[in-house]
Design goal:
The chain is an alpha/beta fold. It is about 40% helix and about 15% strand. A seven-stranded mixed beta sheet has the order 3-4-2-5-1-6-7, with helices on both faces. α8 links the parallel β6 and β7. α1 crosses α12. The protein is globular, with a radius of gyration of 17 Å.
Length: about 260
């Protein structure tokens, strides 16, 4: 069965989408079969993988409302071995439309169950909030990977996220656990980045990935070209970092 990882943090701008795109692409690069699910109404993972999000007939929105099947919502990307369930702004209204549906917390899980065996990894990019879409991601996932930006307010809101993960584990998905934390936007030139890493290590009782994603201009440029970093600039520091992260993720699976 494929391993399902939700990438979540209710803080915006911490590198969730960058991590979803590039971890997915680097896992596929190693020969793994990967499905990425864009669960953010902004649809940045969709456009970052080169898909024109406004012209899609079937997205995760149609899937969650039962207007298409999970296989109908999946599209191939330019990256071999990587498929996508895309998203666009329509998803913003899903929360209200799901209000009257029974077991609305399990809508995504019930669909993904059909295709989980087809993939080695399923990566879910969550919206920057703890809403029903994020809850759906957590009921579907085996683990939650939390990107943390190396900045002063890094720990703010993290206790709330961990509390939400614990609640989902207790009430909705007993097999859910923390995949761990990955540091993003690390600037080796500043003491602050180093202090944030030490602070999180001292205050957080969870796995912390050895790979640290640097602040890298090529990583910032890649989405505007609709390419993951390993295709946009294969030799950049960003590409090397996400390859190392993918390697760590794979090794953790095999433990």
């Amino acid at each position: 069965m494929g391993r399902i990882i939700a990438i979540a943090n209710q803080k915006g701008g911490v590198g969730k989408t960058t991590t979803a795109i590039n971890l997915s692409a680097c896992l596929a690069e190693t020969g793994k079969k990967v499905l990425t699910i864009d669960l953010d109404p902004q649809g940045n993972t969709t456009s970052g993988l080169g898909i024109e999000k406004e012209e899609l007939e079937n997205t995760v929105y149609e899937l969650m409302l039962g207007e298409c099947t999970v296989r109908e919502s999946m599209i191939k990307t330019e990256i071999e071995g990587l498929q996508l369930i895309p998203s666009n702004v329509n998803l913003a209204g899903a929360e209200i439309e799901l209000l009257g549906i029974n077991e609305k917390e399990y809508i995504l899980k019930n669909e993904v169950d059909y295709i989980q065996d087809d993939f080695d990894f399923i990566i879910i990019d969550c919206p920057p909030s703890l809403n029903m879409l994020t809850i759906n991601a957590m009921t579907t996932a085996n683990t939650v990977l939390v990107p943390i930006q190396c900045e002063y307010y890094a720990l703010e809101g993290l206790s709330q996220l961990i509390h939400t993960i614990n609640l989902v584990q207790q009430r909705l998905n007993p097999s859910l656990h923390m995949e761990g934390v990955v540091f993003t936007m690390y600037d080796a030139r500043t003491n602050l980045s180093l202090q944030v890493v030490e602070n999180v290590k001292n205050n957080l009782n969870t796995t912390i990935y050895k790979t640290i994603i640097p602040r890298n201009i090529r990583l910032a440029e890649a989405p505007s070209h609709g390419l993951p970093i390993n295709l946009y600039d294969s030799k950049s520091a960003g590409a090397e970092s996400y390859r190392l992260l993918a390697k760590e993720v794979i090794e953790r699976k095999d433990v």
